Amino acid sequence: MRKTIILVFLMFSYFKASACSCDIPKSIVEFQSAKYVFEGKVISKIYSSDSLTYTVNFKISKHYKNSDNPKSLKFLFQSEGKYTGNFSSCDWTVSKNEKWLIYAYYQKGSLTFRYYCSNSMPFKKNISKKEKIILENANQFEINKYTFTKFFDGNFTKTNPMIDLDSIFKKYGKKKYGKHYNENRVDIVVDIDKNGNLLASNLTSNGHMGIVKNQTIDSIYDLNKPKNIEIRKPKTEFEKDIIKIVKKLKKWKTTYIKGTKIPVRIRLFLQFYKEQNEIKVYY
């Protein structure tokens, strides 16, 4: 018996101007949060009687993620701007006979997929060789081997130290550090394990930001990062105080891949500023 799952989702809030202003997550990260990852062809596109929505039916030719592997999937979307009157430069559509690579996930209880901010995409003949290699190895991906960075690698839940920073900052707020801007700013890179334990904290350098001379972790997923090691000693009094504070922040809120319960090791880039009698941190 042919297995067909009918999936419904109205993406009215998606079609906002800001929807396409985003970073695309690494394929392997989106793979973790997806329910289905597949190649398929649109075999039908049917508009509703009022033309405000349309349903597309994908005949699936290949599943990449280990799952129940349905032979077809249907999705419901808001119609194009010419039907709804809501024109936007970020609009996208799905057409009959198109071939797509789809990362389908649950949102508010319904299964859907995106075009912008996603690795889902239409293709002509075949998906890229690099993408194919990632997908064919993705089910064996060992997530605990990697350190992730928010925005650069994907969407992750927020984390923060499990302590009231303001109470710590009060001790240093009235301290005079220097007259120049650089004497009142410190950049720190921290690594936190999947259980929220601080692994490393050091002054940020260009070495932490790039992948030059980086030890190769894999040749597939493009997740390599330089080791979080001490590049230099603190020079200013503010640097000395901030690095001392951060090294005492031993416990942090666990970070997860957004939309999942998958904990990850995360790298954060923190910026500390001394403004009048206050110390502020951004991350």
Structural notes for this entry:
The chain has 283 residues and is α+β, with helices and mostly antiparallel strands. It has two domains: 4-141, Beta Barrel (OB fold (Dihydrolipoamide Acetyltransferase, E2P)); 145-282, no CATH class. It contains six helices and twelve strands. Strands 1, 2, 3, 4, 5, 6 and 7 form a seven-stranded mixed beta sheet that branches. Strands 8, 9, 10, 11 and 12 form a five-stranded mixed beta sheet that branches. The longest helix has 10 residues, at 237-246. It is elongated. It starts with a strand and ends with a strand.
Characteristics of this structure?
elongated; disordered N terminus; 15% helix; 7-stranded mixed beta sheet; OB fold (Dihydrolipoamide Acetyltransferase, E2P); alpha+beta; 5-stranded mixed beta sheet; 2 domains
